[in-house]
């Protein structure tokens, strides 16, 4: 019987539990695999913190938010000897390989480990939907749904007070959540990092909506920087992968747009609300299928790959191809959304 380790690493994301369940159920029923989980991502591998994952441990979990395994942003390669510790953990638990469920940082670590001979299969995960080599990541649909519901609520209070409301959404360096939630909620301006516009243009969109008797609604992605302005420094420091922690642009816009338009303005940062809670049905199905595919690949010895969604099909790509490119919003998608606001 093939023994496989599973870990969830990086920022959490609705759908992680559905991946774990899909992997374990299909592994036990179809491929004769047995699983152990590592607690808190690579930390559990480095510190040998494990739990058994029999079928009974994954019963009913696909609708649950978060991850039953816990997660962390521990980078296994940030310490010297990390590779040897991972290898030793696998030997100790007699593992044929690892299924690592994570975003860009996790998958990059998985690729480096794989290049040095460790058997790993990656499962792409992020609410940001910014990973190349897969059309959608699970968690994105849930984040967009949550953001849209929150923005709908901002709209009604904005209308009561005749205010401009600004909602800042996550997405790291890509504007996918802002684009989709902004379109779904009918925003009067959608601001994404891929398409910088100057403050006076944003102010004009806000004033125009106000002049039409609407309560202006602005959706801004956390990494947006107005054209002509310097990128805000990173007041929130760096994460363990050395990337700036983003957030706070909405507060700057609140002050500047109020001054420029004379319209009372309030900003809300949706933050981690977008990562919490139960996954949508779409995300549960996508995550389950990816988990099943990861086990299928493990059973077939397809190490060094990442499972991915292409159209409606689940396939596998080489980990080397899968990491390194951020999938940003193409200009055509921005232009399409742009036709609707202003
Ligand atoms: O990558 C997911 C994400 O939620 C980003 O959208 C956001 O910039 C970041 O993680 C927040 O990270 P943390 O949970 O470490 O604050």
Describe the protein.
The protein folds into two domains: 181 residues, 3-Layer(aba) Sandwich (Rossmann fold), CATH 3.40.50; 134 residues, Rossmann fold. The protein has eleven helices and eleven strands. Helix 7 crosses helix 8. The longest helix is centred in the middle third of the chain and has 22 residues. The protein is elongated. Bound molecules: 6-O-phosphono-beta-D-fructofuranose. The site of 6-O-phosphono-beta-D-fructofuranose has 13 residues, from loops.
Beta-strand portion reads 15-25%
N to C succession of SSEs: EHEHEHEHEHEHEHEHEHEEHH
Number of helices: 11
**Which term fits the overall shape?**
elongated
Class from helix and strand fractions: alpha/beta
For this structure, the CATH topology of the largest domain is Rossmann fold
Describe the largest sheet. 7 strands, mixed
Poorly predicted residue ranges: none
Mean pLDDT: 95
In the sheet with the most strands, the strands line up as: 3-2-1-4-5-10-11
Number of domains: 2
Q: Give the tally of β-strands.
A: 11
- The assigned CATH architecture of the largest domain is 3-Layer(aba) Sandwich
Task: Name the helicity range.
Answer: 25-40%
Please sum up the structure shown.
It contains 11 helices and 11 strands. With 342 residues, it is α/β, with parallel strands linked by helices.
Write the layout of secondary structure elements.
Layout: E1 2-8, H1 16-31, E2 33-38, H2 42-46, E3 50-52, H3 82-92, E4 97-102, H4 104-115, E5 120-124, H5 140-161, E6 164-169, H6 176-185, E7 189-191, H7 199-211, E8 217-221, H8 249-261, E9 265-269, H9 281-299, E10 305-310, E11 313-318, H10 319-322, H11 331-338
Parallel strand pairs: 1-2, 1-4, 4-5, 5-10, 6-8, 6-9, 7-8
Antiparallel strand pairs: 2-3, 10-11
6-O-phosphono-beta-D-fructofuranose is lined by residues 11, 103, 126-128, 170-172, 222, 239, 245-246, 275.
């Amino acid at each position: 019987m093939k023994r496989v380790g599973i870990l969830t690493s990086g920022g959490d994301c609705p759908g992680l539990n559905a991946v774990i369940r899909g992997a374990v159920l299909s592994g036990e029923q179809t491929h004769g695999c047995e699983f152990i989980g590592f607690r808190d991502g690579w930390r559990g591998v480095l510190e040998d913190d494990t739990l058994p994952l029999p079928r009974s441990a994954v019963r009913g979990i696909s609708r649950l938010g978060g991850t039953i395994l816990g997660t962390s942003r521990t980078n296994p390669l940030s310490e010297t000897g990390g590779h040897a510790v991972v290898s030793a953990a696998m030997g100790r638990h007699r593992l044929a390989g690892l299924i690592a469920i994570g975003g860009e940082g996790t998958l990059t670590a998985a690729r480096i480990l794989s290049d040095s001979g460790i058997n790993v299969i990656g499962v792409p995960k992020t609410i940001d939907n910014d990973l190349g080599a897969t059309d959608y990541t699970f968690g994105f649909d849930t984040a967009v749904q949550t953001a849209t519901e929150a923005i709908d609520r901002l709209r009604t209070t904005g209308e009561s007070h005749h205010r401009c409301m600004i909602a800042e959404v996550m997405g790291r360096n890509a504007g996918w959540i802002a684009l989709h939630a902004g379109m779904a909620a009918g925003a009067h301006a959608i601001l994404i990092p891929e398409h910088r516009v100057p403050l006076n243009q944003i102010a004009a969109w806000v004033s125009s909506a106000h002049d039409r008797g609407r309560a202006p609604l602005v959706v801004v992605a956390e990494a947006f920087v107005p054209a002509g302005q310097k990128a805000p420094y990173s007041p929130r420091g760096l994460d363990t992968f050395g990337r700036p922690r983003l957030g706070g642009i909405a507060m700057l816009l609140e002050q500047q747009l109020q001054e420029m338009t004379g319209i009372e303005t309030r900003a809300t940062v949706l933050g981690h609300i977008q990562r919490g809670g139960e996954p949508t049905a779409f995300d549960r199905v996508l995550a389950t299928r990816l988990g099943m595919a990861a086990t299928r690949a493990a059973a077939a010895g397809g190490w060094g790959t990442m499972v991915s969604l292409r159209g409606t099909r689940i396939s596998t790509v080489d980990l080397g191809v899968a990491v390194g490119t951020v999938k940003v919003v193409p200009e055509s998608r921005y232009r399409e959304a742009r036709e609707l606001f202003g």
